[in-house]
């Protein structure tokens, strides 16, 4: 990634690349043409070309922003720093506009997924509450009902990123929204979640969503998860 041309001066707050930590923040100590000497907060002193250095927002809130479009600088170190700040306070979800970014917490956060939390998201416009898969599912559900058009939700990420967990969360919300008592007195929510439990269909190995066999290969290759209503 090429940094925009910015005139750094002594004292400028910046991000510099680091082979171990990815990015280190620091202050510009010296400017020699395009060469910057940066004193990093980690203690390291780094010399870097100005084209590889990125400005740091000195006023970034300590616990980050819930929508990255609010960041003063939308570059890689700024985005990663924001997600780190949120992760540190167990805020694993962040919007970038109407895209939801999920960070795997590697621990259970049951307070995020209770029935009461689900109810809070019902009918609330995206962005009014904290970023959450429930908000994405609610938005898709509302569009389907209001426009009468099928909706898809794409869940993408590398292996172990949390696609299956996010998908379960989306399904939980959609089942809750359609949740009148069904066969044998079980709610739709119970029935949908039991599909996961017993794996009645072929699970897509990209996202584990139970798919009928003919669509499995196509969905797997595209690494897509689709909710079709
Ligand atoms: N939101 C979450 N809350 C708690 N644990 C999570 C969450 N997301 C992911 N995890 C943990 O990370 C593990 C891997 O997540 P998951 O199976 O959803 O990844 P995946 O992207 O579907 O992986 P793969 O592509 O390999 O199937 C889960 O078994 C779970 O332990």
Automatic annotation (TrEMBL):
Reply yes or no: does the keyword ATP-binding apply. yes
InterPro entries documented for this protein: Kinesin_motor_dom_sf, Myosin_head_motor_dom-like, P-loop_NTPase, SH3_Myosin
According to its UniProt entry, the protein's GO biological process terms are: actin filament organization
The protein's UniProt keywords, in alphabetical order, are: Actin-binding, ATP-binding, Calmodulin-binding, Motor protein, Myosin, Nucleotide-binding
Residue ranges of every copy of the Myosin motor domain listed in the record: 63-229
Q: Name one GO molecular function term.
A: actin filament binding
PANTHER family reported in the protein's UniProt record: MYOSIN, MYOSIN-6-LIKE ISOFORM X1
Query: Which domain of life does this protein belong to?
Result: Eukaryota
Name of this protein: Uncharacterized protein
Can you tell me which residues bind ATP? Answer: 157-164
Q: In what residue span(s) does the Myosin N-terminal SH3-like domain sit?
A: 9-58
One GO cellular component, as annotated: cytoplasm
Family recorded in the similarity comment: Belongs to the TRAFAC class myosin-kinesin ATPase superfamily. Myosin family.
């Amino acid at each position: 990634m090429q940094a925009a041309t910015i005139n750094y001066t002594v004292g400028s707050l910046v991000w510099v690349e680091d082979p171990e930590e990815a990015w280190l923040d620091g202050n510009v100590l010296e400017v020699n043409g395009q060469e910057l000497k940066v004193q990093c907060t980690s203690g390291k002193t780094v010399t870097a070309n100005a084209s590889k250095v990125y400005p740091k927002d000195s006023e970034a809130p300590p616990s980050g922003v819930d929508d990255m479009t609010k960041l003063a600088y939308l570059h890689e170190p700024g985005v990663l720093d924001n997600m780190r700040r949120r992760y540190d306070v167990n805020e694993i979800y962040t919007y970038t506009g109407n895209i939801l970014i999920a960070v795997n917490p590697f621990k259970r956060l049951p307070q995020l997924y209770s029935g009461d939390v689900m109810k809070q998201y019902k009918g609330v416009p995206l962005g009014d509450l904290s970023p959450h898969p429930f908000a994405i599912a609610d938005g898709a559900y509302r569009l389907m009902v209001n426009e009468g058009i099928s909706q898809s939700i794409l869940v993408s990420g590398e292996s172990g990123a949390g696609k299956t967990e996010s998908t379960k969360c989306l399904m939980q919300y959609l089942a809750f929204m359609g949740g009148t008592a069904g066969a044998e007195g079980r709610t739709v929510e119970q029935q949908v979640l039991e599909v996961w439990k017993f794996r009645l269909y072929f699970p897509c190995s990209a996202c584990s969503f139970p798919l009928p066999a003919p669509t499995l290969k196509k969905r797997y290759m595209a690494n897509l998860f689709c909710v079709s209503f």
